[in-house]
Design a protein that fits this description.
This protein is mainly alpha-helical. It has one domain. Helices cover 83% and strands 3% of the residues. It is built from four helices and two strands; from the N terminus they run E-E-H-H-H-H. It has a two-stranded antiparallel ribbon with strand order 1-2. Strand 1 and strand 2 form a beta hairpin. The longest helix is centred in the C-terminal third of the chain and has 36 residues. The chain is elongated, with a radius of gyration of 18 Å.
Length: 154
């Protein structure tokens, strides 16, 4: 899906991704380090992660299509497109951490003494992947803004 009506679909899809990545990153970190948050938010976090995993390829595919519609492809636009292609890896990382959190929430008691170690590993991964995902989305968005509006922002 490259257009919605006559309008390029990329801006529509990308805004969902731009909002959901930091939201999910914060949710996975909260769920990983705070038991009360995990009890209340783990399933929402997992559902949002699945939705994000579906929307991200739609945004990047529509972005690739939009790039090929441009008469002049600037290096900044090419950089934005290349960075955009990396988004799925960060989104998949968030999905894996969300799945691990849901597993720990649902079946963590069966791990016995290993539950504490598993929780620590998942918490460290949640923080690393969460922060990295937010950082990468900022990089992707920054190059996209420069590609559209130039370095002066006008």
């Amino acid at each position: 899906m490259n257009t919605i009506g006559d309008i390029p679909a990329h801006p529509f899809f990308v805004h969902f991704v731009v909002v959901l990545v930091p939201l999910i990153a914060i949710l996975v970190i909260l769920c990983a380090v705070w038991t009360a948050a995990r009890e209340r938010l783990v399933w929402l976090t997992l559902v949002l992660s699945v939705v994000l995993t579906v929307l991200t390829p739609l945004a990047t595919d529509a972005g690739e299509w939009l790039e090929h519609q441009q008469q002049t492809r600037t290096p900044t636009l090419h950089e934005h497109t290349e960075l955009g292609d990396t988004a799925i890896y960060f989104v998949l990382g968030l999905l894996v951490v969300s799945l691990a959190l849901a597993f720990l929430h649902r079946w963590g008691a069966r791990l016995g003494e290993r539950r504490g170690l598993a929780g620590i590993v998942v918490a460290v991964l949640a923080v690393l992947i969460g922060v990295a995902s937010i950082y990468q989305m900022v990089r992707i968005g920054d190059t996209g803004a420069h590609a559209v509006w130039g370095s002066g922002g006008s």
